[in-house]
């Protein structure tokens, strides 16, 4: 029986040691320290990269806690719960960064503490910036290199279809020769037209000078003509008034003559006077014809 008790004691001792080692190992792995209390902060970011639960939280590079939870919010932001040691406060205005460091891409949250005397309360919500690490940079560089390789391939195709062709250089040389010929012809044309253009400009300048001289010489004459025209216009008004008055008088005389009211009207309307006047005009006409034909040798008895 004593042997069996001893065996039971040994088994019990081994179990207790195993449980102690298990609890100690779990506490060590979870970075639990007996008697240590923690505080929790909420960090929000647009992305977290390779950050995962259990990654360290550091203040100015010193580890003070770890990430306990990562989840996606309804507004498409990533919410991170960070557990840090109690008594270590975060000053207002501190910069929170999600970093990937090292060649293996170790992830962590680093808080660069500010000198502000005011502190965030535990449970406060902080905004974090994502810092691309070496792994992301190398990945982006790989994409850039791949794009550059594709561009080089396309450029090589373009070169092979243009400069790389055997007939490219002769064609370019022929085009350059034709361009030289055209340039020479243009220069010759310019040389021929330059004197003509200069002469035309000189003629235009002389014509302009002559036109200015004519205008200067004719300006006084034009002024005098305009002055006389103004005077004539001023004298025309009373002349028109006199003509209007004369026309009115003539109309009155004609009207009286038609009605027989004036002497002229009575003479016109008198038939005997009209006959005598007509006979006298006829005799006078005959006399003038005889004078014209025979000269001044006229019989005096004509007047008896």
Characterise this structure.
The protein has 304 residues and is α/β, with parallel strands linked by helices. It folds into 5 domains: 1-30; 35-131, Beta Barrel (Elongation Factor Tu (Ef-tu), domain 3); 134-165; 167-244; 263-299. It is 59% helix and 17% strand. The protein has helices spanning 2-29, 134-161, 168-259, 263-269, 271-294, and strands spanning 38-45, 56-59, 62-72, 78-85, 95-101, 106-112, 125-131. It has a 7-stranded mixed beta barrel. A hairpin with a 4-residue loop joins strand 5 (95-101) and strand 6 (106-112). Helix 3 (168-259) crosses helix 4 (263-269). The longest helix is centred in the C-terminal third of the chain and has 92 residues, at 168-259. It is elongated and about 210 Å long. The N and C termini lie far apart (220 Å).
Please give a quick description of this structure.
The chain is α/β, with parallel strands linked by helices and 304 residues long. It has helices spanning 2-29, 134-161, 168-259, 263-269, 271-294; strands at residues 38-45, 56-59, 62-72, 78-85, 95-101, 106-112, 125-131.
């Amino acid at each position: 029986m004593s042997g069996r008790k001893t065996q039971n004691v040994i088994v019990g001792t081994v179990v207790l040691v195993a449980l102690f080692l298990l609890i100690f190992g779990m506490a060590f792995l979870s970075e639990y320290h007996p008697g240590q209390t923690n505080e929790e902060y909420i960090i929000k970011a647009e992305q977290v990269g390779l950050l995962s639960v259990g990654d360290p939280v550091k203040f100015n590079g010193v580890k003070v806690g770890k990430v306990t939870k990562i989840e996606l919010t309804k507004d498409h932001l990533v919410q991170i719960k960070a557990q840090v040691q109690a008594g270590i406060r975060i000053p207002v205005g501190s910069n929170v960064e999600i970093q990937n460091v090292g060649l293996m891409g170790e992830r962590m949250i680093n808080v660069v503490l500010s000198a502000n005397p005011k502190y965030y309360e535990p449970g406060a919500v902080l905004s974090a910036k994502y810092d691309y690490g070496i792994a992301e940079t190398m990945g982006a560089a790989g994409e850039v290199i791949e794009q550059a390789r594709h561009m080089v391939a396309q450029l090589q195709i373009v070169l092979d279809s243009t400069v790389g062709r055997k007939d490219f250089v002769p064609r370019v040389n022929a085009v350059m020769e034709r361009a030289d010929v055209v340039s020479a012809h243009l220069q010759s044309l310019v040389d021929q037209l330059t004197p003509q253009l200069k002469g035309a400009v000189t003629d235009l300048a002389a014509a302009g000078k002559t036109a200015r001289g004519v205008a200067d010489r004719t300006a006084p004459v034009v002024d005098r003509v305009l002055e006389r025209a103004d005077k004539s216009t001023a004298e025309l008004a009373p002349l028109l008034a006199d003509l209007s008055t004369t026309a009115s008088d003539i109309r009155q005389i004609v009207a009286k003559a038609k009605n027989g009211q004036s002497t002229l009207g009575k003479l016109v309307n008198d038939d005997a006077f009209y006959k005598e006047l007509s006979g006298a005009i006829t005799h006078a006409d005959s006399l003038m014809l005889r004078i014209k034909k025979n000269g001044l040798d006229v019989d005096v008895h004509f007047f008896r």
